[in-house]
Amino acid sequence: MIKRELLEKxxxxxxxxxxxxxxxxxxxxxxxxxxxxxxxxxxxxxxxxDIKTLIRFAREHKTSLIPRTAGTSxxxxxxxxxxxxxxxxxxxxxxxxxTEEHWVRVQPGVIRDELNLFLRPHGFYFGPETSTANRxxxxxxxGNNSCGSNSVVYGSTREHLLSVNAILSDGSEASFGALxxxxxxxxxxxxxxxLETAVYKQIRTLLGNADNQQEIRKEFPKPEILRRNTGYAxxxxxxxxxxxxxxxxxxxxxxxxxxxxxxxxxTEIKLNISPLPPKETGLLCxxxxxxxxxxxxxxIAMRYKPSASELIxxxxxxxxxxxxxxxxxxxxxxxxxxxxxxxxxLRNTREEIxxxxxxxxxxxxxxxxxxxxxxxxxxxxxxxxxLRKAGLGLLSNLPGDEKAVPVIEDTAVAVEDLPAYxxxxxxxxxxYDLFSVHYAHAGSGEIHLRPIINLKTAEGNQLFRTIAEExxxxxxxxxxxxxxxxxxxxxxxxxIQQMIGPKNYQLLRQVKYTWDPENIFNPxxxxxxxxxxSNLRYEPGKKAPDLETIFHFxxxxxxxxxEQCNGSGDCxxxxxxxxxxxxxxxxxxxxxxxxxxxxxxxxxxxxxxTKQNKFDSxxxxxxxxxxxxxxxxxxxxxxxxxxxxxxxxxxxHYYDANGVSMRTWMIANFRMLTSLAxxxxxxxxxxxxxxxxxxxxxxxxxFAEKRSMPTLERKTLRxxxxxxxxxxxxxxxxxxxxxxxTNYNDTHVGIKAVxxxxxxxxxxxxxxxxxxxxxxxxxxxxxxxxxxAEKNVKLFSSLISEETPLVGIEPSAILGFRDEYPDLVxxxxxxxxxxxxxxxxxxDEFLSIEADLGHIRSDMFKAADRKxxxxxxxxxxxxxxxxxxxxxxxxxxGHSVEVIPSGCCGMAGSFGYEKEHxxxxxxxxxxxxxPAVRNAAEGTLIAAPGTSCRHQIKDGTGAxxxxxxxxxYDALA
Length: 973
Fold this sequence. Notes:
By secondary structure, the protein is of the alpha/beta class.
């Protein structure tokens, strides 16, 4: 056991960071696999010198280093008990591009999709594409030899890896690239005693042996299986010029790709890049009654040389019905198909795609295969791929403890063998009363197959192993590869000897221990791997804790909801990929600030805490601190992990044990305190705007001194409504939800909203109702919020219907009826709350729907050339759509509306006011929103439905943003 003092000394030697606390170690104890092992420490190196220091420390103290980028590996590649070395934060530079020679040089932490954003203006593209491409990093792609749906054209990362700079296990630097036969032999003959020379000599001896050559060619997977990551790729090195006449130059990069960080630590990577593909993309989405039909049709499809042929089975399609984000992408599905084969064609014109798709369709129909053949183009193709890529996360969305587990999900066989292989595969599962999800890369002979197993039970743990053993035998029967793209890691390393034979396995061990004699680089992966059903996330037979919650978690507990996170890391995408999740990670680039980290810490502590109140945890509080409760994860996480909801629940129980700070109490009781201040709004405004008084108030209350405070209007909206009643009419009636923010802070917005509705012919009916409880919810005062929610549900359920909807102005307040209320109210009111939610709308939604019905027309507004930039509210994006706001702002002729591709503005209610959160808040704003506002052409109007968003825009840019109804009211004819 390494003493803490030694780790502290190591931390002082590093320019980067070293974490030894339990919280950070826990967050890095898992990846996207079923495995969990507590690391010794977590290092965030600043430079190559730090990496050398870590290597020296590992050698001297007999520990190990586990290289890590995004941590999305599915076979436990980045789980281990040594020091996790995370290069995702600092090693992120694109170093050089050469368009004449078609290559780019990068550091290992460059994200694949962001590399392609950089390459696009140059007319190039890095081909291999994983389903995780918006957060997967090049270092990880090399380590796993990643590929994706387009591998039938672009192959795997190995085919594009030209050279690497690496630090070897003795701390020496080395570069590996293509060598002619003479250059290779010269490397082997060097007498310099370097480790680099030793690895060349060893591979010449190993692959120059005729018996070894025969055994490799006999036992390794079929060469025609392009997706094969079975151990180290010595079979591919064998097919190079020094060992096989007429073959390509020798390049150790073939071995390094797929080596999972076990041989060397990569610092620079040189990649081949391809010209951009043809501009036109068409997807023929063929519907089948059974999976077997789709696999037989796939053989026909491959004759037409598509760029991809991807399978989506009925289990995936069923999951998408319940996912907020993916429901929108099901538009092309007809009936309930047993499988859909998505066949992609890239051509220069649509006409060429239509022609080849028609021929393929005719061939399939002649074979009696397929019943629906939609051909999709343009933006529709992105929706299809989004649906397909969401498959992995959606599988985690199963309620309860049974999950679709990654155990034999990465097998690959020859395409012509696929129908028979899958039939035998399913026969094995049937023997154990199991069924599997089938999806992904039919075109390259690899279907991701995930049986449903409960790993929390001893029986499930053993079944996990039994299935792996039987399928390994089946794969060997077809001379296939147990890993096609996800790697061996902890999951499949145990079976490599079975797949390639004991002699070849010993050759792999020789390779490993020549490169890494002291086993410091990612040990127990590929070779000498422990039992595949050990060190799993879940301890078999461990009793689940009894956790009473205020929120209802349908069909599961709060712990099971946290466990829906499988670690796929969708929350690690950056602002360049779009979307909202996760704003704090986008700003800090720290794993601790991901949605995944928050789910992980909840799972760990709630499972293992011995306290009576398991929520009494400073570790959870610390990791949840930068959650802005934006709700991005509720819709964008493919597993629908709602961290905001879990944070609210946690805070209530944490307060029970630790009490509530004054600032938290003030924010939660916003409505009560604001109503008192509204007695004398002038005095309040003078106090919060005066330099000295404002500074004192902020210091006393814990708000950021640089932040301006919200002011009160001289008249509340409720008082204005009483003074300006509307006579009863025969027109359509709408009930107004007068939220506390509009009532006190944005009266002018409320007045324009009401007058807009009245001028458009609606009778607006105010109601004396309680507050929305948004502030209480955001601060975790769930018991108080529950009382208010139940009052609102009881009050409005007797008034609201399809004919008389409830309309609100502030998104966060009105959308609580749709989001939190149904799970917050008592069991007897849940159905009532759900029914009520169907007829509750943001005013933007209501006006948009009415426009679609023809009740609101463009001729009701003045024509005027006007440019508008629109920033949508986070909860609007998660629970509704920004398109409603865009649609209504586009009603007046001449209005040009551009949606700013921003995520969260960074204010998030009270978050951006709090002194310790101010800097992160502004950093989030600077990602996309602030630059977009500052760069807007003169005269451009800025629209934002959220009151916090408008305040953030003002503080961050000085620009005044308006609610869409203000702009629309001013445009009335």
